[in-house]
Amino acid sequence: MNFYEHLKARVAEGLKRHALTNPLTYRVLKTLARRSSFPLRFQQKLTLFALEETERAFRPGSNPVVFTSAFFPTEIVRALGYVVFSPEVAAALASSLGLAPSCLREAEGAWYGRDTCSFHRCAAGALELGLFPKPDAFCASTHLCDGAPQLFANLARRLRVPFFLLDVPQEESPEALAYVGRQLERLYRQLAELGGRRPEEEALAEALEASERFRQALLRIESCRKGKSFPLPPDFFLNNLVYLTFVGQGSGEAARMLELLAEELERLPSSPGRVRLLWLHLKPYHDPSLMACLAQRGATLASEEMTHVYWPELDPSLPYKSLARKVLSHFAHGPATRRAATLRRLLEGQACDGVVCFAHWGCRQSSGAVEILRECFSRWGIPFLVLEGDCVDGGAVGKGQALTRLEAFLEMLGG
Amino acid sequence: MTTVSWVCSYTPRELFRALGFGERRLWGVDPRGSALPHLAANLCGYSRACLAQASGEERPEVLVVAGSCHALIHLYAALQLEGLKNLFFLPLPRLGASEAEEFFAAVLRRLAEELAAVRGGRMDEERLKEELRVGVRERREKIRLFREPVSGFSRYLYLRGEGKDLTPARSGFPRLALTGSPPPPRLLQLVEECGGCLAVEDCCGAYRDLYFPEVGEAEDPFLTLARLYLRRPPCPRMVGDRARRFKYLQELIRDFRVEGIVYHTVKFCDHALYELAAVRRWAEKEGIPLLWVETEYGEPGEQVRVRLAAFVEMLAARRESL
């Protein structure tokens, strides 16, 4: 039994809330992870990193725990040595461990309706149920999600902790760059005050250096994956890289891990003859059948929009401007036609055979754009499949239809 | 006269008037029956209704789409694909800080230049200053309607420019505030048919769109304009201004002697759907009954009527018991 299955089995047996929120549990799990076998050393390091971060989040009197939304520039939190906790990533984990139904029920009881994103509902419910650490602050950015800033504002108000908003306008202009840069400077100062720290420019420059190394390593990984497939599960990169891109940027350890992954990939033999897909958004975390189908058919995710490098080089001597540029350069920021153009370049660069868009029901930004994407890909003659579903809420949609459609798509692509 | 159409009440109309354009808000048309390409099924009814209107017979000559939410950002992309001419995007801040005001002022200046190019003219800043004064006077005049005993439904139609007659309000009925997403007019009519008295409509095109603060004239009229719009009562999308939003709601409850809140969400409107959870918690703490109703921005269903009637009845009974 691998490490993850072991953890899932313990939760299924009724690993209780006090155990899940006890730092000791994570110490024990770290020992277990050190003794478990992983296909790559990178995975073991990543597991230990995630467990260490979670232990820190639950450890009393630890550094301030800052809840960050996906795509918030975590460098300014990492620079202060604070714990970065992503409730959206934690919701995905809760879903894969079978904890989502009770969390979703709890959130619905607090009037988070079923049309809102289930990542957020699950996170709100998990926080109410005491499954998450106690946040000291919430940080959210507005550019890719209307829901996360709203949820964080609500939770911060309820828990009487600060809410920091990074307002990212929907355009890449000199005015927008200055506006986001000024906010980042203010947020760094305010976050430092939260933990009684000084907003050291040197620490921020170090975080940006680590983030740039992270970016360089991601580029190396992208280059390894170009035209080459690996004897790894189809969703290997989606599973492992999303977590790091959401919480690890600005951490030296996260950069080192990606460098290790790049080295390991460079040494791995390639496995030929697979259907190569570009995967959009995320995947259903409660149900492994789509990924099992891909594995069975010899298909793999050759690239994911969520994990590719879209932002330019960071300059540690200009931290706010660099981070502002990074945030504003997000490929899915602005009209969906811009996203479509980036995806086309990615598809061609990574030699993919087709695109699968997992349309997460509650996501207005991503799945709200599927018709526009469909139209663009159809004009370009690129095979494009939309799978409607829900990443976290297993009860929301039937899985049979998605599976049938995926099988038909793979067949069409020759898989 | 060329008319500029717009879709979000954070769009400063003074700018269009100063450039010599006419202006009108798009309220959308019933999207049922139109092919309605480009927009996914999980986007709100307002964006769909606007797409139906802008891509149908009422194609706007000039359209400014504000980036209020992801539905409207997708609406902009959809209209790009439709090949709509003279289509402009207006990025909107979501907080009221001074840096947001400066950014918004710069954006408005650029928009003015782009719009001026449509007519081959240029912006006269003195004229903009004058339009700012006219706007203040107009809002001051219209907001008086909320102090008069008129029906909320007729007031809403009047303010939207869709009705000329203001009918009297029925007295003695439970006083309600309507807030949340932009409501279809039929919802207001239904509230009144169910025996509710609309004391105040906190929504686009109504009170929230008129209760602007006094801001001193800055040297740069674009900065004045930005301040005016970003300091107005925040709507649910102004997530960076949540404390001010609750303070404003509190004032509404007090000033209009509100006995109950009807919180309306358009299906899939994230800003309202998330804010609802916070407003509901706040209302509970304040002891103000709240009813959540949802529409698809069209005809509210029979279920909405039944729930509204029960809510009003409960408020009447509550009043008697106090």
Automatic annotation (TrEMBL), chain A:
Protein transport among keywords: no
Known cofactor(s): [4Fe-4S] cluster
GO molecular function per UniProt: hydro-lyase activity; iron-sulfur cluster binding
InterPro entries for the chain: FldB/FldC_alpha/beta
Iron-sulfur keyword on record: yes
Keywords: Iron, Iron-sulfur, Metal-binding
Family per record: Belongs to the FldB/FldC dehydratase alpha/beta subunit family.
Name listed for the protein in its UniProt record: 2-hydroxyacyl-CoA dehydratase
Originating species: Ammonifex thiophilus
Native organism taxonomy: Bacteria, Bacillati, Bacillota, Clostridia, Thermoanaerobacterales
From TrEMBL, chain B:
The keyword Iron is annotated on this UniProt entry: yes
Superkingdom as given in the UniProt entry: Bacteria
A UniProt-annotated Pfam family: HGD-D
Claim: Metal-binding is one of the keywords in the record: yes
Keywords, comma-separated and alphabetical: Iron, Iron-sulfur, Metal-binding
Reported cofactor(s): [4Fe-4S] cluster
GO MF, one example: iron-sulfur cluster binding
Protein family per UniProt: Belongs to the FldB/FldC dehydratase alpha/beta subunit family.
Name used for this protein in its record: 2-hydroxyacyl-CoA dehydratase
